[in-house]
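haha ok so turns out i had the wrong file open the whole time. this is the CORRECT one, sorry everyone. sequence first:
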Amino acid sequence: MAQTDSLITTDVSVTDRERTSRPDETVVRADGLEVHYGEERALTDVDIDIPERKVTAIIGPSGCGKSTFLRCVNRMNDQIDTCRIDGDLSFHGKNVYDDDVDPVALRRKIGMVFQKPNPFPKSIRDNVAYGLRVQGKTDDVDARVRQALEGAALWEEVEGQLDSSGLDLSGGQQQRLCIARAIAPDPEVLLMDEPTSALDPVAAAKIEDLIADLAREYTVIIVTHNMQQAARISDKTAVFLTGGELVEFDDTATIFEDPDDQRVEDYITGRFG
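then structure:
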């Protein structure tokens, strides 16, 4: 497809060059993944390989299955009675829907951050330590809490108020607290479902910078409606369209500057969706 001036231009200078140049090693793979909610199909025959320790953005119009795919990765859809899943979705080569997979244990390896900050009505310290205590990790809790808060770029702002409620923080700080809570148990994959959509631009920019840092240690999969954000922060981009079809998945620069599928160009330039 010929490159057009109307597509979003990516700036690779804002990404971590070492991360970008790292060879792709698949950590999450979908093979013929289909999801139904009752009679309604949410995902259609999805094949995708998510690379380890990179940022993969999932974009597309509302209702195209972006969040459904994200919830499949750590089996959050198990909580929906009408949900039926066919095909395979593997983590390090193991189908996460095999009968011998414990969903709780899976979620220790695959953490999740939601659209709206959802800190517990507890102290900052107890918010971060919650997952550790659930897992019985009671050694060096304070050190682990500090490490997680540092990893979420929040430590310097809250180190003197760890006993204060997490609900007293600003929206952006609350979201970073939720990220600290998610990474404290040391997962391998971090799922983010529109983590900046409820934040102001300054707070959102801090989260974007944080995602770049996190991808040096974690595999990050982010759903976003903001195509400029996807272009700025991701290494790979998956485009889902109506009907839950994965239309194209490639390097972010290719998706935004020279996609193969006309429908992707139409979506990016606002002529579709």
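The domain at 12-268 is CATH 3.40.50.300 (Rossmann fold).
again sry for the mixup
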